[in-house]
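Many introductory courses stop at the sequence. We go one step further.
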Amino acid sequence: MKRIYICGKVTGDPNYQKKFLEAEERLHLAGVWPVSPASFISKNTEWLKAMRLAIRELVRCDGIALLPDWKQSKGAKIEERLARDLGLEVKPISQFVRVKPIDNPT
């Protein structure tokens, strides 16, 4: 099973935990093992320490799922760049969790 790291804005987003939990659920349903920094880094962790913890997990993953707000985050941009430099699969979360279109009831 692929391990996919969730990448998005945390600092300054009071609802980041809910957003990351929803992403975890969507990835799990898509058949991948989601790795969410919101689940292993406590809310009040200092930024540098949080990045060290996040990168430690990121490098163990097969890919990275970008949340829509990732470009608004200094840390997420670092994670995205590192993942690309390491040759990991990097794409928007929507490409990992393709949703089947709703049938047209006619």
